[in-house]
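ok so I'm stuck.
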Amino acid sequence: MNTKEILDRLRQDMSAGLIKIVVADGHRYYTDTLTETLHIPLTTPDETAQLYKRYVIDGDQTQQAQTKDLFATLPRVSMFIGQPDTGKTYAALDIAKQCGIEPIFIMARDNLNLETLLEDFTLVDGKPVFNESLAIKALSDPNKEKAIIIIDEFNTLMTGTAKSFQPIMDDTSTTFVYRGKIYEKNMNCKFIVTLNEKDKGISILPDAILSRSYLKTFEPTTPQTLAKWTGTDEKWVTALFNVYKALGLLSVFGTRQIRMLKPLGDLNLIENHLRSLCVMKNIDSKLVDSLEIKTLIHKL
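replied:
not stuck anymore, here's the structure
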């Protein structure tokens, strides 16, 4: 690629929102929008093009080669465990993206079980006509195409319901049965499930599922990272983090709380919200009126 072709690619990536220009201490450079780890100075066209080719274009080719191996390294079932806002769901979706796969995303709910996962229906004359769902098509694809099924908040399922998924999550048997029909199992269909470690339901997951799963724990996200994710001033996020920590409310602290409370701009509304959270979590709401908490809130 010549300099013009490389710079044209750079402009395309900027238009797509993948690359942006950052100014720091009077110094301008290109960086990637997502992680901001790329650092390519704006110098001469030739030098900028050379660096962009090395770190981005050639890097993409390396990434594509790694992507081919990424799916192969995925276990049949991966469990991502951590408190809210630690990036579990984002990581699951990102893995699918890196593998070049549009995942089947399912939010765990009261009526989710193996039956409802594998069924789908359309209304014909006001009556449901059941067909095979996207999930069962992926699980039994005769062409063995790669697929990823993500089940979010898997630990909210009852023990018996979670155990019902064992036949399709198992990596040893070659078939599974659904509604009296035997399906040949597509072992290129992988599962990633997320679990909230603060939810007591995680402790009753059946061993039959745990023994078949790779477990990965996600550490609590730092205020600095949360500030970056939400585009909020780091000092404000750190101050709010310290309030939640002092009240014992870190289990619910994260990007959603930050995005909800920051626009309020009224400390009285924030205090009322904190008191209500304390009541919901069986914490003495009078703590909000203590000198320590008042001092921390004042820093907001």
